[in-house]
Amino acid sequence: MTASVFEPWNDPEAKPLIHFQNVTKRFGEFTAIDNLTIDIYEREFYALLGPSGCGKTTLMRMLAGFETPTEGKIFLAGQDIAPVPPNKRAVNMMFQSYALFPHLSIWENIAFGLKREGMAKADIQQRVEEMLRLTRLEKFARRKPHQISGGQRQRVALARSLAKAPKLLLLDEPLGALDKKLRQDTQFELMDIQEKTGTTFVIVTHDQEEAMTVASRVAVMDHGKIIQVATPDRIYETPNSVYVADFIGDVNLIEGTARPTGSDTYAMSWHEGLPPLKVQSPNSLSDGQKCHLAIRPEKVAINAEKPADADNAVQGRILDIAYLGNISTYHVELPTGAVIKAQTANTRRIARRAFTWEDTVWLSWTATAGVLLAE
Amino acid sequence: MMRRFFLIAIPYAWLLALFLVPFAIVLKISLSDYAVSIPPYVPQFDWAEGIGTFIAQLDFENFIWLTEDDLYWKAYLSSLKIALISTFLTLLAGYPIAYGMARAPDEWRPTLMMLVILPFWTSFLIRVYAWMGILSNEGFLNQFLLWTGVISEPLTILNTNSAVYIGVIYTYLPFMILPIYSALERLDGSLIEAAEDLGCSRLSAFWLVTVPLSKNGIIAGSFLVFIPVLGEFVIPSLLGGSDTLMIGKVLWEEFFSNRDWPVASAVAVVLLLLLIIPIVLFQRNQQKQQEAEQ
Questions:
Q1: Whether pLDDT at A1 is above 70
Q2: From CA A214, how far away is CA A194, in angstroms rounded?
Q3: Where among A243, A261, A293 does a domain terminate?
């Protein structure tokens, strides 16, 4: 099967649309962006993910032209954009607050950028109608922003920023103000629109679920640095650091020392008197190196008896059960005092649940289930 | 229900006692005739003669007189002109100040606000007198300009319309600044960024976003200046010259120099009617603004 997979970042021939070259941004004493180099490719849906204050918004504002780098260069389609003011960039931004003009109707809001371009009246009319259709806002064209709902406002902001057909669309926490259900629907809508228009999207978010859902690649940031850039599945399955593993989703971290037992296989001793854990992990570690085993709760099985053929099995006592409807998370205390989370799908009714508080259970996982991360 | 009635009743009673009753008295005097007596008009209400005779003695003579002597309508027109021009000049001076205040760092704003309000702590009369000292031929302004060599002869500013404009702008500037400032302060900075992002230059973003969104502040400020300036008396009489014609001054002279209370009252009633038009417009603007915010 040779269906072309969209992975320009793996193609050495591909030219990035945006190239950050050793960019540093300081506000007085504070370093918001620290010597950062990234490439973003055309048609990508690129998510900048990180806690607040990690520099992701600054990065986006530099792309829009509202901030200039203290050091380093930013290239858009091969051109250094430092001297280009925001109103001359082929970049549009969807603001976190939407920033819709309250004195203009929805129609006029969407037409605002087109009018500034000096586009012919008939063409503006056509383009606005097209945008209204794309965002399903035809009925609201004559209303003012305060007369429509939050979800509709969000779509107006999107339509307005897409109207000029920018090379690059920046989305600053676009769904932050929406409730969860609406947010999930809108995420798929965003992906749909991104695919239809073929625009490159860069989205800033602190919501890891949102980043995982929409993005082709996710960049995890912390303190002005990029920690890891990878596809959502790789970020989740093979995080490159304890920080990423901990930031994305739920994770169990077991501390120990690694001892190589073959190519990519390790025995990790983690507690006196307990057998070492068998791990198969791509990150290379030296003998005796301190490390963490990161393993996702859903990859830990929970059983009443010790499974015969498991790579790793430890005994513990159920401390807590978090019932989430579709799944349950068991907090199991090991004899060492550490607590391991194990998740199972609730395929049976809760009355028939096999385990309860204080039960002694066996936790098991395969050698490939987790990854070893250096300190 | 009763509680609500009492709450509304208090301001209405206040209006009745302090506005409507005095206005009725002024209206009555304006319909009376001049007389050499105390008070200087007839008829006086007399219980013995009854209300019918009393009303029969009232007429519109004074109002007709206002249309016959061209002094009055010229004074009204001149007041209107001075009020319009000074409102415009105050807006021109006040908008940049309000804009600068709204753009200033947060920690500066209370200080700047204080500076705008500070002149109110001194008597208005004293401040206008101070301008006489500044603007007179031997005043500070002329001395300064002579000293720098910009002029060789002192400028005559005091007792001209220019002095009136300077006094009006100085006095009413805070009334223009404060509503515009409050509109600009609420303006979301990301709207300007959005306008720039969509292709606006700094200047066009100002005209297309900042000005329309501060429109309500501009209208409120303009009315707050225009309405009192129309009837202004102190500034033209202290700073203006003999050729400065304003209705407030005419009114004062009718009352105190000519002691013609009925004509003076007629002038006041017409002035009030003239002022009601902008006040109603102002009220409608406020109402529209409130509806838009809901």
A1: no
A2: 10
A3: A243
